Amino acid sequence: TDNVTGKRTDNSANEPLPSVSVMYHVTDNWTAFANAGVSFGPVQYFQINRTTNGLTPEKAKTYEIGTHFNDVHGWGGELTLFNINFDDELQLRAGRNGSQDAWTNLGATKHRGIESGLRFDFGSLTKTLAGLTAYATYTFTDATYQQGAFAGRDLPFYSRHVATLGMRYARDRWSINVDGYAQSKQHSPGDPAGDNPVYQTQQSADGSLGDIPGYALLNMRMGYDFGKAAQNLKLAVGIKNLFDRRYFTRSTDNNRGMYVGMPRTFYIQASLAY
Prior knowledge:
The protein is an all-beta fold and 274 residues long. Helices cover 1% and strands 51% of the residues.
């Protein structure tokens, strides 16, 4: 109920959510799995209060198949294929002519792709390298509208390619981490339900619409664990965005525009455990 206008809005829904999961242990260190299920997201109170029409709860059918392994000559990893079909995905739509933002149903959308990860423990080669590990992850996602003016086009604010690469060295109470992160370009195409829907790729005058270039960042961190004698005090220093790369994102809500990413940042962390 809106205490200002006195308007009362109700939204109720119920859905069966069947799911099935299968796992097979090929060996002690190697597992294969498959999942299928239906997920359901009821409309939240803040969404009901900010909509121009009746909202339908999100419902999705999810399918996964994959494998993971551990401790195979120092190697570990996973690979998963996924497919998610939304019936009525929700999105916050920018307000028009000074009106507030409003939630709306995008309609049918499809998300499919691959998630992968690989790890290696150099200590498996020689004791001299004990404590040194490396890892890499890569995710490919193809997420598209399935109906409306933007059917077949990419959904907003996601990257098709996301990757990480890092190393960690831990010895006694010391640890050092170096990790990189990279993502491909994103899109902020506008409203497919607008009066004259155009999939915007060039930057708009206010900076809220248009493609968003990809970027890559490198971070470093060094930490020390004082142990139980000092209440498990942990101290760390680090640098985010080591090479001070310039990147930005966009926003299409009431604070629409371009937002610059975090510049090179030095930080100190401390924590205690009781």
